[in-house]
Amino acid sequence: MADGTWNPAIRAWLPGGAASAEQVNPALHRERVWELLARDGLVWRPDGESAERNGALTLSWPEEWTWVQWRDAALHVLDAEEALRIHGWTLCKVNAQWVQFSGCRPVWISQTALAPFDGRRWPGRQEFLRQFAQPMLDTCIAAGSVNRGSRWQAWRARWKFLGALRGHVSPATGADLAGLRSLVRALARCRDWTPCRMHESPPVSAGLAGVIAREQAVLRGAKLVYEWRGALPQSGKLAPAPGTAWVRLHASAQQAAADYLDESSARGAALPLVRPAAGGPWRRAALPADLGIAAGPGNVPASLPSLQAFAAECRQLCRAALVEFLPQSGYSWEAFLAAFDGLFRPVRVFETGPGRRLCLFERA
Are residues 49 and 130 located together in one domain of the fold? Predict the structure, then answer.
């Protein structure tokens, strides 16, 4: 399906095929089609066998995605549209927010966007270009402005995008989706890192702090956990607790993209995302976590002003927080506690190493 090839023997692909399919099998309505796509893992179903197989659904916003997630989400929409047409249906509306992630696997969540397919045109094509291709093009152009090697790719992607806006390809043979897949791959900008470079200096294990963090997530029955990752983390990633929606909030888009590729290949349960620039709008504040975690060198702010800003951010995003004090930090233990004063109250302190302390805070 993902290779863009089509089976002309399926009547629903041809003009008028949707109506014919409905006449042959009137029971093939929206709910039934949704069930069929849920079995293939293309759409989200919150209960039943597919939910057990798919894992927890983690809500995210497109501004938090890396370029790899933009690419995977766009290709997933095209896969869902292709599968729907087989049954005589289509996505009449497309919105980037209607793609969410279960672990690192994209799923479509809006059943109301499904409509019978007339076989002549995809009604969601222009919305797909605006919701997915346009933001990807903007990212590609921005990369070309700072990376000389990406300028040719940005110029080529821009012309492909303009051609897609103006052109129209009949969906009878599936060439329209094949062309959009080619466009998405052209818009996915070249990464300026390699897996070897990302792992030249492997981070040390989080050690006892990681074990305690996982135990606390289980003991508190946390359903949503935020793990803060710095721009240059020097400690390893934490293992998600079972049954939780585990989100890694990266300060670096490159680190988030590398983490996402690692988690995708390993079928991991964590979802890496990018934190917006300081002071920028962040809709994640509307979805507070049961527990936030910042442990290990490179993940906990090293200066007192940045720690105070971090404490305020934690107050917005978490009901409780586990934050590690490190002896090499630029502040004392008393200043560390004072940074959270008025926002959180300390509940428990764990000794995690020589001079290291992991403090459990709850909202004041």
Answer: yes
Query: Residue 241: which domain range?
Result: 208-363
Mean pLDDT over the full length of the chain: 82
What total number of domains does the chain contain?
2
Q: Based on the domain organization, do 256 and 129 belong to the same domain? A: no
Last residue of a domain, one of 184, 219, 254: 184
pLDDT digits (tens, 9 = 90+) for 63-80: 999 999 999 999 999 999
39 and 96: one domain?
yes
Q: What is the pTM of this model?
A: 0.84
User: How far is it, in rounded angstroms, from Cα 117 to Cα 295?
Assistant: 51
